[in-house]
């Protein structure tokens, strides 16, 4: 894992800087040196996005997207050779924007980097990140070509995203670079997200430079404006395209100040055209309200000040045409979405999405002090006080830019307000969230401009005080997000990745748990999982009584036998409560996290499969069915059976525990530090495996008879899923079990804003014999069925 961590967080960011800088240099040469140094990386990233999307438009060229980016970057260095040495030399010009960019990068990288393992944040919050991985891998290999026959969850996701003309600006470069470097997409996602944060900071730095004189204040404004609370929280749970849209929007404003249409040479408009095209490539036509309002305001100002209005209109028309050409691979499929929106009167409402209730429009101020944006504010008063301060300073900032007679800054503020109004009137809560996140960056940037403007009327210390208030308001909210965010279980996903690689081509495969990332890691074995089942459905036994609400996993005996037998592999999370597959399946791998089963004999080898374990089984009725089946089948037929694991279970919801650990649906909600203690009676001595159900951010320690078995940390799970704890040697008789959770610290995911849960605790006796299948005569099978209380299932099988 160390090598993978270093490749993700050291090598990949360095490659990103080199690649985007080369592309930025190329664009600068093409634009007649119209790009200042601080905007080289943002412009280069815009080019990377646009080129990736264009090359991946066709399946014939998709695999060339990575080499194409490398070639363009090398060309940029070659054409700018005399200036490269100057750029590489450390100077004050790079120090302050570099600090701002690093601050934004560090904020988005911190949850994963400080957890000390590769991976990404936001696991269990939303399934969208898994869709990003699927789409990125498909684009890099097959472009926007349909996968054809859909026989896996991976292809199901890709087909859905292609059918809605999903934009590829975020996923295209991710897939291209991952394929070129030979590192799987999930391990590069968070570094790329953090790099986008750094690019946003550089764009903000270039935008605020004329309004904030202090370079240190500019660096702070850039770092914090790149991470307004809502955008930061949403980015850490999958909102990468909103981060790109925000960065490209402010980049466009900074570039149009340097090269206004009608006054600058036509080729100097290329960088701005690329920036808008990149925003469209990432956010599709949804960025339209911001761009239209910004262009409209700037065009009106230009016409009012211009002596040659024809030339001005022609220049703006040329820029718009350039944008259309550059964004054509995204705009062509977007026409279908536009037609649908037009048919709906221009209104688009996707409901709440994963929000528990609509967000307040005040969240667009960039300050939102909560650990999880999906839920209402726990302490609204401090948040709204800080929002009022930031908005007051932002208003001062807008007034200050008007006094400076800078048309671009007021136009951007106007565009943010107009676009926000349009979105809130024409869409629903989920799309509003995205608008609030993007607008929050502009609100915070103007808050810093207003704080700096205070220095013109008050002592400099007052301006710095106002600056620190804005920064503190945003960072307080972000600290809450950082403290509550989940970090993906890297070891478990690495295990899935190896299984997918080692068994490639052996599918189709069933993964019977709710795990959106299994769809990606097991794509080469054509896996079907619960999140996006292939062909849109799972076939379960009729009249199955399931718990109310979302299902986060199924026992194998809950599936229709014919459906189960239609697969070649089963990959499932290890769980001592789970059933063995039918007798014609052979376990071919067992790891700490998973078991892999291969169908070793034809499905016809099993004539009848009768589950006997689980709360819904009825042993007496099942044995009568077995007897009836044996009387009507080949007298040479045999009976196969499997035993359930020998387990002892402790229900933590029924034991003494800390008052702040309430019980909920058989588990404990582990708010804050606390403990739960109980007793189990082990009937037979020997080696046991300990298992604990739950989801764990801050470490939860399991102790037996006063001896610590293990501490589970950074092991997030969905409900009713279970984690392996460790092995213990136990004597027969009673044993004391203690589950404890300490206080929080500065590590990510140690907060209590999101519920953590624990339970039950299960001890499974070793050696595990539940995978073994025994075969007996028909008469012996009937006797075993009536006499055993530990049968997992019993079958009628072919004589062979």
Fold and architecture overview:
By secondary structure, this protein is of the alpha+beta class. Helix content is 49%, strand content 14%. The strands form four sheets. Strands 8, 9, 10, 12, 15 and 17 form a six-stranded antiparallel β-sheet that branches. Strands 2-1-3-5-4 form a five-stranded mixed β-sheet, with helices on one face. Strands 6-19-7-18 form a four-stranded antiparallel β-sheet, covered by helices on one side. Helix 6 (128-142) crosses helix 7 and helix 11 (229-235) packs parallel to helix 20 (460-484). It is elongated and about 105 Å long. The relative contact order is 0.09. The mean pLDDT is 91.
Distance between the termini: 46 Å
Measured on Cα atoms, how large is the radius of gyration?
30 Å
Q: What's the total helix number?
A: 25
What is the helix fraction of residues, given as a range?
40-55%
- Please state the overall shape, judged from the principal axes of the Cα atoms: elongated
Biggest beta-sheet profile: 6 strands, antiparallel
Oligomer designation: single chain
How much of the sequence lies in strands comes to: 5-15%
The count of β-strands is 19
Low-pLDDT residue intervals, each spanning 5 or more residues: none
Could you say which structural class the secondary elements and strand pairing correspond to? alpha+beta
Mean pLDDT over all positions:
91
